[in-house]
Amino acid sequence: MTTSDLVELYIEFFRGKGHSVIPGASLIPENDSTILFTPAGMQPLVPYLLGEKHPVGRRLVNVQNCIRTGDIDAVGDPSHLTFFRMLGNWSLGDYFKREAITWSYEFLTGRQWLGFDPDRLHVTVFGGSDQVPPDHEAADLWIEVGVPRERIYSLGMDDNWWGPIGKTGPCGPDTEMFYDTGKPSCGPDCRPGCSCGRYFEVWNDVFMQYRKTASGTYEPLALRSVDTGMGVERTVAMLQGHDSVYGIAEYENLFTAIREAAGIRGEPDPDRLRSMRIIADHIRSAAHILGDDQGVSPSNLDQGYVLRRLIRLAARHGMKLGIPEGFAWKLAERVVDFEGDCCPELQRNAVRIREELEREEELFGKTLQVGVREFHKLLPNLKKNPSGVIPGRVAFRLYDTYGFPVEFTADLASEEGLKVDMEGFREAFGKHRELSRKGAEQKFKGGLADHSDLVTRLHTATHLLHAALRKILGDHVTQKGSNITDQRLRFDFSHPDPMTPEQIREVEERVNSAIRSGLDVTMSEMTPDEALAEGALGFFKDRYGDKVKVYTVEGFSREICGGPHVGNTSELGGFRILSEKSSSRGVRRIRAVLEERQ
Fold it and tell me: What 3 state SS string does 468-500 have?
């Protein structure tokens, strides 16, 4: 079974259970400042899980492209990926545990579906906490469908609890399904969730039945929902009998090119195998990020920083394998050719993928030259140290300031008879990462997940801004991304040149005029074709379902959007543009705020 086969089978199964098929969202979260990339299929559906009505109904199914940045450092082992595809089905206040668990078992073990051996299926359920009781209902349902008690494991909140997106909100227990690979157990405590690799997770059902309050207590929800997730690559790896996710065709396709470029014959040693996996994962991930219609480019901030890190890590491991420069695009071209049918945005943006990868590889080459020069500037003083050890903080400074990989510092040091204090480097790097994590948590908060008053007002203001930019600059202006916190909006749009001060003032005044006019904001549901025929703006047609929400600001703008919005523009207050600058080639970025209402 291929990944395409699995996706088609899953969609067919849940369509037969009354689910409407919806498209996956962009990898770049639209108007959501809580995250850098879409990490799971549920993330774009948060407003509907919070109670907003979805235009196509209460039972949904789709496949979602995902990026998980927290797993980058783990890539290279048998199971972790940065980019992956996630299948999911949702009940928005419709069915609950009985149907979800019964259907999960049916799809996993049914001969006309996946046909997993039911005797090798193990599950985990929530075992309770000091505030929430154990999920006995889920355990009883698994026994009812045929899983014996001894293969059901009750675990705590760290393993079987889905928390709210923010500090408060919907949450609840989950149940996870694991396939026993038959590998030897690592000891008497070996169980699903263990890192030894014997048990491979293939599916997760989340039951949102509680709401976490500001005081930290959990209250039952009136609207109970189900959110599930099945990793496409992982599941196919199990179905095909691989002991690693990298055994599937998407990666074998890339490994063939890597082997040829590196001149690898036979089975690679563990270090070379890890480098091959990192290169394949990172270039595949970079190709999908660059291929996304939202248009992220490598940079030193936010999504662009992650993208740059992926490309440069791949380049670094390519050098370790002796692969000549300029291989990144050749590898990405295989991704475009192999996955272009299921992800047509890759084909649409193939030229952009190539240009950005070639440019970033060239920049990395220059970075290495600077790093070598700076190392040799430090060398006379470093040699004065009688221990012959380069302090970790010095190696980290070369990495942090110039982007010079510590492995390269170690190689240069070895040529001079020196060593690098790698433990000291890791300590300095850990402190830096912790500071970065805290900064990101502070920066990426709020967003559409909280539906706060100011976020809702700022979101509506982006519609006015978009319409004003098109009026002043021209119809070539299209949205390329949006990010909203509870303090400001950031709006990226296509435009080749910097705006003049006069144009900025014109746009600002046009938005404020719409606010002063007190225009009604209304919503209607229709098909995407009907929306576009009525003049609504919408630039991501592949991402739209059979029905969409169209928000109209009377006489000013009409746009396909998921919300949230105010009811009248008079609720917004004063609009002020803080800055206008380049985001990437051909893309400008505006930051703006709403002043206090008079």
Answer: HHHHHHCCCCCEEEEEECCCCEEEEEECCCCCC
